[in-house]
Amino acid sequence: MAQVVRRSVKPPLDYGPELVDQVRFVIAIAWFPLILTSFALSFGPAGIQASGFLGLFGALDRLGAAYNLIVVREFAPLVTAIVIAGVAGTAITADLGARVTREETSALDVLGVDPIKALVVPRLLALVFVSILFNIFALWAGLLGAVVVVAQNDAALGPFFASFFANATALELGASFVKVAVYGIVIATVCCYQGMNASGGPEGVGRAVNRAVVIAFLCIGAIDYVFTQLLLATNPILSQTR
Description:
By secondary structure, the protein is mostly helical. It has one domain. 85% of the residues lie in helices and 0% in strands. It is built from eight helices and no strands. The longest helix has 41 residues, at 16-56. The two termini are 41 Å apart.
């Protein structure tokens, strides 16, 4: 990771075209799974069950407060990380692993081109940028799922949004983007490392992809727990219902 940071700022900064290509590639393969998953989780396990429970007490207007916790704090960053790791991360690991087994990285070394700067840096920056962008998509898709749940229960949207914005804070939104950026950095580091260290031909590339997915998902779970606990411990106001 330290090598990537140093080489990303060391002139010449000639990885721009590759960075743009990687951003376009990740967006193209991951935007639909992200939106579909965000909407499905927001509408299904979150929305239907929460609305059914709150409806028993005639407090469906409190659904907005629940969605602040469900979408902004948890689901949007988590879904973004899972989709990025499962769709884009695996593709990056396979791509880099194939280049290594075909000795393309060795050829770059012979030509005087730094493989880390040429291949790893643009992919890491692309995953971080797309993770932040996809968090916005996940937030909108999650809120769309909430709107469908409210409409399904023949309730007014006004009380829902009043409760949502009464409980939402800029701190929580900012923390959501920080968390998803950390996810992007960790996922890119794991997947690039596994790809650049693949060996054993096509079989080795497949094993590298499997390792990358498992390690990335374990890291996602650990980061989610630690980050959330630190956020709540340092900002007790987030635990208060408003």
